[in-house]
Amino acid sequence: MAGIDFSLSNGNWAPEIVLPDAAPDGSLITIGSSAVWGSSITNGAEAMPVGQGDLFAFVREEGGWTYITDPESLDCKGSECALPSNLRRIKFLLSNGNWAQDIVLPGAAAEGASITIQSSAGWSSTISNGASDVAISQGDTFQFVRSGAAWVSPVSKVEKTLLQFGCTDGSASCSLPTMSSPVTKVAVGNSNWSSTVRLPATARPGDVVVIRNDASNSVGVVAGDATLETLATGSVGRYFRDGDGGWTSAYPVKVLLVYSSQAADAAGGASEEELRLARLLDFTNTALENSAANFYLVAAETIQYDLAATTLAAAYEEGIGQLKNGASDLALYRATYQADMVVYEGALGTSDGCGRAFTSPAYASDYMYPEWIQDSKESMLAVISLHAWCDDFVMPHEVGHLAGLMHEGTANTYPARIYAKGASNVGDLMGKRGAGVEVIPYFSNPRLYTSTGLRMGEPGLVDSVRAMNENAPTISNFYP
C-alpha cells in the first residue's frame, strides 16, 4: 500500500471508514468528503467524525496510523491552534504558507498519546505545554508524549546546542530552560559557547543533563550559587536532579578493561582492540545517558592479560576465582588501578553465549538485597566474547547485570527490588532478544517513552534505572 485517496460524496457514501490494521510504514491514506451526511473514521479504538468539506491524512509509522494536520486544516492559520485531544498520534506541520503563531497542546489526552510538531516556516512559533512554553523554529521537530497529567518529551539521543536553547554565542552565562524531558543533552562548541552554563532551576527528581564541551575554552557548570564542575575541552559532564531538589554530579564507576592476546589478534592488533573497547565503553555510557542513569563508566586502565580458559563459561569462572584470590595477577591489576568493575574480552566463541556477568548465587530469593551489592565487590566481573555474532549491545547488557539487573520476565521474590529488570515491550538492553526484536540502547525506565508512545517500564514493577541508581553510590565507592 503506497497511497490511497478515499473520497466520500452524496452518491458515494459510507457511514464508517476503518483504517487497516496492517500496512507498510510510510503508507499514506487521505480521506475527504463532499457528502451532506456525516461519517466516521475508525483508527483502532479511536473514532473521528468526518463532515462535508473535511480532509484527513494518515501516515503509517512504527506500526500505527498517525494523523497529519496543519493550521489550514484546523482553521487556525496565523493565529492560535489548539490541537485535538481525542487522537492518540498527531503530526502537526508548519510552513511559510501554512503557519500559526501559537500551538496549544490539549489539556487532556490518553496516557501515552503522542504529538509531533515540525516546522519548515521562516517564522518562529510558540508551543504552549501547560507548565511552560517552547519556541519552535525553522528545521525544528518536537515530540511530546502524555504522561499522567503532563506532556513530556520522549528521551532523545539528539544533542541541542546552546544557541538552540536561546543563548547567544560568547555570552557570559547561559541558563538552560525548564526541562521538558527526563534527559537533556547539550553540545558546546566554538561557535556555540558560553563561559558558564546554568542547570535548569526547575526539574523533577531523576532528571539528567549531559553537557559535552568541544569548544577550545572551558565551560563552568553552575547549579544555583554553586559551581559543580569546570569542563575542559573534550570532556563530558553528567548531572542528575536529586530528591532534595538540587543538582549532583553523576557517580563515576571505574572499569578495568582487559583483553586477551587472541582478542587482539582477532581485532587486527592490540591498538585496534583497545580502540574497540573504548568505543564499547562510550556506547555503554550513551545508553546510560539515554536512560537517565545517575552514573557513568570511566576507563581506569586498558591492559592485555590472558586467562587460560578458551570458552566463555570457563573464562568467567577462572576470572571470578582470580578476583577472589587477592594475590592473583588479575586481582592485583584491579587493586593497582582501583577499578570498581572488570570487563574482560576474549575470542571465546559463542557456545556459551556472547557475555556473562556476576549475578547473585541465590538469584530468585536475595538478589538485590542492599547488602548484596556491598558484599559483591570481589565478583564485579563481566566476560564478553569477540565474535561476529556478538554485537555492541553485549557490554552494556553485562554492565547492567553488574549494576544489579535481571532479564525481562525474570521472577524475583524479594519484594523491595522486583523492578530491577528489563521491559518486555520495547526491546531494551535487559529485554527480550531474538528474531524480529530490535534492541534499543536504553535501560527500562517508566519515565521514558518511545516516539510512538510506548512506555519503557512500569512504576514499581519494571524500572532498571531506579535499581541501578540506587546501587551506583555503593559501586562507585568500592575504591574511594
From TrEMBL:
Give every Metalloprotease StcE beta-sandwich domain span.
5-66, 90-152, 181-248
InterPro entries listed in its UniProt record: StcE_b-sandwich (IPR048990)
- Show the Pfam families listed in the entry: Reprolysin_3, StcE_b-sandwich
- Print the keywords alphabetically: Hydrolase, Metalloprotease, Protease
Q: Which GO terms describe its molecular function?
A: metallopeptidase activity
Record keyword DNA damage present: no
Output the SUPFAM superfamilies linked to this UniProt entry: Metalloproteases ('zincins'), catalytic domain
Protein name stated in the entry: Zinc-dependent metalloprotease family protein
